[in-house]
Write a structure and sequence with these properties.
Blueprint lengths: L2 H31 L4 H23 L1 H8 L2 H28 L2 H8 L2 H13 L5 H19 L10 H19 L2 H7 L2 H19 L10 H29 L1 H7 L2 H14 L5 H17 L3
């Protein structure tokens, strides 16, 4: 791989993760200020983003759009990706935000770095290099400080928040690993678009979303628009395109920029207060980006 291509993959991955952080703050605003159900947020963002991406793909790559639609194996993997990856991730992440805050939820989700790296090592039958090991330890140390504030006996968050945070980490590992083969053959837009559409349809029936009453105000409409366009369409497309270039394990570790972005935007716009332990944890997480920035 050329150095310029690798650098592009790094930048694209970081941009996608940053979009997720911003959308996390918007999700916190919708659940805590607007009082919206996480199920409704998940439903709308998946369906809307899926439709937008597929319309874009149809206009840009019409031939490829028809080919993947008539390839049963590819569509099967898109369904698995949408339900087991995208739908699972979005609902667990939104529920974690509702139980804690966007900064904490995104930090917990980054535990997926361990799962992805272990899966990659098992498939390739190899061990992580020294820089990756240091990055993992830095990420874990930062996660520990944010989740516990340095205490070995108690959490600084609720059990419900920890439960959903861990589930979101498992789901995040799934959505990174499942579509790797799909994206190498079809690119990132089509698999993500079909996956979001299938995930949204599946969630519609599983959660019985039509029973949830929602009242949209101007602030809620704006936040929902940011979630759909930046936090879903751009975030998933950029992040998965980047991981296709630099690898899922390293891409997932670079995703640690997400909690930093979520924390900054939460503090600025929702006035969430973070302690010195939180800031130390964020610094360790940010260090992961610099450790992995070199090929």
């Amino acid at each position: 791989m050329r150095s310029s291509e690798y650098t592009y993959g790094i930048l694209v991955t970081i941009a996608g993760a940053a979009c997720w952080g911003i959308s996390g703050t918007c999700s916190q605003y919708l659940s805590s200020v607007q009082g919206m159900d996480p199920r409704w947020i998940t439903q709308i963002r998946l369906l809307a983003a899926g439709i937008i991406l597929l319309l874009f793909a149809y206009r840009k790559e019409k031939e490829k759009f028809h080919r993947i639609a008539h390839t049963p194996k590819a569509m099967f993997y898109c369904i698995v990706f949408g339900v087991c990856g995208l739908m699972f991730t979005q609902f667990a992440y939104s529920s974690s935000i509702a139980a804690t805050n966007s900064g904490t939820a995104t930090v917990l989700q980054n535990l997926s770095v361990i799962l992805v790296l272990l899966a990659g090592c098992m498939m390739k039958r190899t061990l992580p290099v020294r820089r990756e090991i240091i990055a993992i330890l830095s990420c874990l140390a930062g996660t520990f400080l944010v989740a516990t504030h340095g205490s070995f006996t108690k959490l600084s968050i609720s059990r419900e928040g920890l439960f959903w945070g861990i589930l979101s980490a498992v789901a995040a590992a799934c959505y990174i690993l499942i579509p790797q083969r799909l994206m190498k053959q079809w690119g990132s837009i089509l698999p993500v678009g079909w996956g979001m559409l299938f995930g949204g349809i599946g969630f519609f029936f599983l959660s019985r979303i039509w029973r949830v009453d929602i009242v949209l105000r101007p602030g809620g409409i704006l936040a929902l628009t940011v979630i759909i366009l930046a936090g879903t369409v751009l975030a998933f497309t950029l992040f998965l395109a980047g991981t296709a270039l630099i690898g899922p394990a390293r891409g997932n570790m670079l995703g640690c920029i997400e909690p930093l972005t979520a924390t900054l935007t939460t503090a600025l716009f929702l006035h969430t207060v973070f302690t010195g332990m939180d800031l130390a944890g964020f610094a360790l997480i940010l260090a992961t980006v610099f450790l992995l920035a070199k090929k």
